[in-house]
Design goal:
The protein is of the alpha/beta class. 35% of the residues lie in helices and 23% in strands. It has 13 helices and 14 strands. It has an eight-stranded mixed beta sheet with strand order 13-12-11-7-10-9-8-14. It has a six-stranded parallel beta sheet with strand order 3-2-1-4-5-6, sandwiched between helices. Strand 11 and strand 12 form a beta hairpin. The radius of gyration is 20 Å and the shape is globular. The mean pLDDT is 95.
Amino acid sequence: MKKNYGFGIIGLGTIADFHVRAIQELAQGKFVAGFDVVPGKAESFCSKYGAVGYSDLDAFLADPAIDIVTITTPSGLHMQGAVAATKAKKHVIVEKPLEVTIEKCDEIIESAHKHNVKLAGIFQSRFHQGAILMKQALDENRFGTILLANAQVKWFRSQEYYDSVAWRGTWKLDGGGAVMNQSIHAVDLLQWFVGGIEEVTAHVGTLAHERIEVEDTAVAMLRLKTGGFAVIESSTGVYPGFLKRIEICGTKGSAILEEENLIHWSFSEEKEGDDAIRTGFGAGSSTGGGASNPTSIGIQGHVAQFRDFIDAIEQDRDPLVTGEEARKSVEIIQAMYQSALSGHSIRLPLSTTLKKG
């Protein structure tokens, strides 16, 4: 008989509802407890789902019904909850980004290894079928030499979005702006698709919003280890907001992934099934992808990632998005910030995070 896994959530803001909805789709998962530092918030949130609410972290982590903890606090507080959970011998899933500096990412990763628990970072876009097909084609070398790759996240967030919560738009708790928060899924997909990044040159600016410390617009040019180039375009000021878009262009083929959908799929050497891919994965997106509304996202990517995490526990293997994998996008984004602040190109790997704010 398969084991059922109790999920506990640390941080009960907007994204926690998406986690609960995803957990409810799991045959082997149940939301059993939640923790939040705001008095009364945990009890109010958890009562909607028949779970136990905690305002004391130690009591939450001591709950024997919890097998897996998901972290949905503000980004700059991820390490605090994740490390505490690993020390309590709970398996841990951390919302993006894993943390806001590579040093904090490393502390989470090291603690998970030390306490022999599984760790995953949420990058649900990797679990959409269009992304999986793109990765398979890349692994099969169907694109030939990758010459150009683009990640475009041209989204819209109102001034009210940033004003509504005090920690939004701060270096300390948001860890960055349009790139770290909104574009990190596209950065993750890009690096997953094209492999190692060798050098980063970037410019960032706060051009469309007031009263925020971080960028709302950024561009970067990346030099790939394979010799090609990539460009990242990121903004939260573009009205009305467009679906995120990843383009991969090579000497033998090109493909464009727009949110979940492959809107272009062309190779010099066609294979059986290519027509079916063009027909089956080029339809309109099922969600707004968060382009103009952060709550306009589906839960199926989270459901698939949670299922993979349970399978990783049961099979004693790594989850598909390990802590080490989740760290990669943070390193690239930190390199973008370092380049923009210094005015120089930054080579990877980074040795440290440049202090800001």
